[in-house]
Design brief:
The chain is an alpha+beta fold. Helix content is 41%, strand content 19%.
């Protein structure tokens, strides 16, 4: 007879395996801005996409194992097209797709020997910012509604903490891209990933060197609220380089006033002579010729 393993232990082992494999990749982010939803993923490949269109106002982004989330993306496109054809295009929503992905990933996690090593984000842009929807689906079929922004894949917790400090409502596209780049380039926390055995790989994968995050190593797409029908649009080439230059110039301008405000204090500190413990020399301030008296 085979050895008995409790279902709890099996599920724990599957979750640890999938979590450690996903942590070896690079983190991606999706966040709202005034004109829609921005998605940014470090991706030097021009053939393998992490961000794609699912339907008219719905986008798909994923991190993890490419062949697995690409199969899920194609299945999601088929599900959306069939639903829109049989019923109405307005019946295809990000919530329905997120629930469908959750059922699919949950069944794979429970029934198969090896779970999928993926994390998925389904985003839908609305007519107003309050109507925007961002859902995160993990490898075990769990769904979470992420208002404002979400980080997934890789060391997502560290990236989300850095992004939370920079995110605010009604951001422009330039500000949103700058916040995403700063969060992705932020170094991971000390000791992160030590439990899963992926600390060094994930640290490199998160792009700790900001110089690597240029137009050639980024995949950027938006859901443009102002566009009718199909809102998905990729940002590449000269347009992406222009946005990168503007975002870095804005970040440098924001840091300049802080350094300028510290300059007068530093000059005053240099002008003030340091205190000394030596006895004073020279004549007393009141009277005398400076010759010590017996």
């Amino acid at each position: 007879m085979p050895f008995y393993v409790s279902p709890e232990q099996i599920m724990r082992d599957k979750a640890d395996y999938a979590r450690s494999r996903i942590a070896r990749g690079r983190s991606c982010v999706a966040l709202q801005y005034a004109g829609g939803i921005l998605m940014v993923a470090p991706n030097p490949s021009t053939a393998l996409h992490k961000i794609s269109e699912l339907y008219d106002r719905i986008a798909f982004a994923a991190g993890g194992r490419y062949n697995e989330y690409e199969a899920l993306r194609k299945a999601g496109v088929t599900y959306a097209d069939v639903t829109g054809y049989q019923f109405d295009r307005r019946d295809v929503t990000a919530r329905a797709l997120a629930n469908w992905y959750a059922q699919t990933l949950g069944g794979i996690f429970t029934d198969s020997t090896k779970p999928y090593e993926v994390e998925i984000v389904v985003a839908e842009v609305g007519v107003k910012p309050d109507d925007d929807q961002i859902y995160r689906i993990t490898f075990d079929g769990s769904v979470s509604d992420e208002p404002g922004f979400v980080a997934f894949g890789g060391q997502a917790d560290q990236v989300a903490a850095a992004l939370k400090e920079r995110f605010h409502d009604d951001m422009t596209l330039t500000e949103a891209l700058g916040a995403a780049l700063e969060a992705l380039a932020a170094p991971p926390a000390q000791g992160s990933g030590s439990g899963s055995g992926s600390g060094s790989g994930s640290a490199a994968g998160n792009g700790v060197q900001a110089t690597e995050l240029n137009a050639a190593h980024l995949e950027v797409a938006i859901l443009d609220r102002a566009r009718a029908h199909r809102t998905f649009r990729r940002l590449r080439g000269p347009r992406l380089e222009e946005l990168l230059a503007e975002s870095r110039a804005a970040s440098a301008a924001a840091e300049a006033p802080e350094s300028a405000s510290d300059a007068p204090a530093a000059q005053a500190a240099e002008a003030t002579p340091p205190a000394s413990d030596d006895p004073p020399t020279g004549p007393p301030s009141a009277s005398g010729d400076g010759i010590p008296k017996p």
